[in-house]
């Protein structure tokens, strides 16, 4: 399952960021999308970074938060219920497989990606289309794409859902996020200034993803840095969750 990363950044394991208190809490249908991608990222780190317990524990923590928000959805659609169960099953299987590549069924990476996509599609369909509320989910979905590229070599987006973030990669998501952040006045709010500074750093790394190239190398030719990108992505999505709905005031 895992393609060896050429070089890992020398960073400490600053993981397990707690979910902050929300200034204006997003609806549970939006939050489950964020935490589904977070749980997937944790599994990818677990298998890609040498099966460390800290990553397995982080995945279990992500799943607990996902479940807590899923339980808050008053009437999950049948599609969402089935997709949720299938997604959790795939994550559990990913932790149970052995440590060698031959221990993992060759189709598992594709099945994991499909389970995540199906769950996000079902949640997005029921939630509606508030793009400002989807910002944290977009950041975490891009993080999954980056980690998949670094550790596995590929991640298949839902191209038939190209009108939503689930069918988009960095070529569309980066400018879309830029556009959503642009109207926010960082001069009036230090929290927004910090958010935009982090996005500038993260954007540069994600722009190196090179999804349109099948050679599995970054656009710059530099090694992928999954640990660093994951840490920054989780911090940024955490900031967005703390800020709540960023729709500009009318």
Describe the structure.
Helix content is about 55%, strand content about 0%. The chain is built from eight helices and no strands. The model is unreliable at about 1-25 (pLDDT under 50).
What would the average pLDDT be, to the nearest integer?
Answer: 87
Helix content: 55-70%
| Major β-sheet profile | none
Supply the number of helical segments.
8
Radius of gyration: 17 Å
Which outline best applies?
A: globular
How much of the sequence lies in strands comes to: under 5%
End-to-end C-alpha gap: 48 Å
* Alpha-beta content class: mainly alpha
Overall strand count: 0
The SSE string, one letter per element, is HHHHHHHH
Low-confidence stretches: 2-23
Quickly list its features.
250 residues, mainly alpha, 57% helix, globular
List the helices and strands and how they pair.
Blueprint: H1 28-48, H2 53-71, H3 78-96, H4 108-127, H5 135-151, H6 170-181, H7 190-206, H8 226-243
In short:
The protein has 250 residues and is mainly α. The chain has helices at 28-48, 53-71, 78-96, 108-127, 135-151, 170-181, 190-206, 226-243. The chain starts with 27 loop residues before the first helix and ends in a 7-residue tail after the last helix.
């Amino acid at each position: 399952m895992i393609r060896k990363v050429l070089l890992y950044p020398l960073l400490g394991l600053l993981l397990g960021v707690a979910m902050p208190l929300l200034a204006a809490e997003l609806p549970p249908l939006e939050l489950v999308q964020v935490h589904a991608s977070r749980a997937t990222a944790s599994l990818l780190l677990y298998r890609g970074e040498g099966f460390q317990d800290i990553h397995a524990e982080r995945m279990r923590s992500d799943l607990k938060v996902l479940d807590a928000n899923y339980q808050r959805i008053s009437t999950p659609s049948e599609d969402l219920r089935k997709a949720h169960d299938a997604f959790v099953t795939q994550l559990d299987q990913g932790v149970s497989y052995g440590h060698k590549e031959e221990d993992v069924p060759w189709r598992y990476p594709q099945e994991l990606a499909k389970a995540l996509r199906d769950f996000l599609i079902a949640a997005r369909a029921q939630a509606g289309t508030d793009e400002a509320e989807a910002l944290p989910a977009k950041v975490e979905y891009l993080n999954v794409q980056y980690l998949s590229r670094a550790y596995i070599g590929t991640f298949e987006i839902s191209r038939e859902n190209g009108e939503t973030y689930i069918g988009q990669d960095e070529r569309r998501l980066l400018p879309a996020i830029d556009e959503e952040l642009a109207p926010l006045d960082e001069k009036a709010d230090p929290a927004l200034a910090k958010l935009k500074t982090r996005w500038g750093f993260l954007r540069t790394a994600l722009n190196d993803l090179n999804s349109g190239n099948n050679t599995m190398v970054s656009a710059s030719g530099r090694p992928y840095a999954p640990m660093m990108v994951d840490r920054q992505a989780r911090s940024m999505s955490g900031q967005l969750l703390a800020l709540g709905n960023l729709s500009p005031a009318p």
